[in-house]
């Protein structure tokens, strides 16, 4: 009996040791100090509910995340769970690097609470949930009421022409500019919105797979944005600005207008009085329509994870009602859960601008062609380099449109050939 007890105790101790040695790696790619601290707090709850399991959080700076994560993967440093931007999903899912979450969703009690859009977008590749979106990023226009009043602009602009005129008037003020241009990482959204709005359509491709980027309407939108910069209606150094810089440019009072998702509201609301700024629909083009981009990000499990059941438990903690609301309240995304609409936080005044966009039939949310494997490189590398060349005058708007159209046509036609 003593020998049996000893053996049992030894087995128990060995089991405990193995459990204590279980470490999950979680990669965060849309990184900020507030996001990381919030992620740590949710992960701490997971660790408490799963004794012996630790989560190592690897936070990559967003401006370099695409290249850094690709380097990690090529070196075999593959996490268990990662924060997956919509623009990367196709690349990693189509290369067999992501685990299907369908078996887990079929048994999860929270699945029914996921919005239809969350499930639809999470299943964007092969109708399989390779990602669970945690929330949505819908563009709207922030405007500085004080700057507009000082420049003699009585109301926020409704059309592209009014926007350009208001930007001109504000830029005439000493040290002030109309628009916080995002010329660096993440800047593609602005080019797409203004291009589609001038074109009157957010169709990226013709039926034969050729890109619309070099069509007359899209070229007008590209030229419009380049002219805005060349005319001095955006700060000169905004050619390199990313998310943090454009948000700081707005709350510091440098720029009167900022197009951004709800995540910008966190930093702005901390530094500006609610009565000093507003949020409204993006300006409309000649067709009377506007095409604000809608993006999303979520949680994915890597196929090479050695701890898939635990990795799912971590995703379920992050995506469940408590984790999802906590995360989105701090990151600013519109939640992926239906039940979030009952939360008083989202009924507040600050979110009315985005709900106004959703309710406007002439504001058509635009989803990027993220199903293309080549899109991640296009968005995070090629588009940045070439658009900066156009802003500097090294290439013409027509040459920029042609470069984009050539790249995207090849990607789309390759995709169509595989179908």
UniProtKB/TrEMBL annotation:
The keyword Transport applies. Residues 1-20 form the signal peptide. One of its GO terms (molecular function) is maltose binding. InterPro entries: SBP. CDD domains: PBP2_TMBP_like (cd13585). GO terms for cellular component: ATP-binding cassette (ABC) transporter complex, substrate-binding subunit-containing. Gene3D superfamilies: Periplasmic binding protein-like II. Pfam families: SBP_bac_1 (PF01547). GO terms for biological process: maltodextrin transmembrane transport; maltose transport. It comes from the Bacteria. PANTHER family: MALTOSE-BINDING PERIPLASMIC PROTEIN, MALTOSE_MALTODEXTRIN-BINDING PERIPLASMIC PROTEIN. This is ABC transporter substrate-binding protein. It comes from Pannonibacter phragmitetus. The lineage of its organism: Bacteria, Pseudomonadati, Pseudomonadota, Alphaproteobacteria, Hyphomicrobiales.
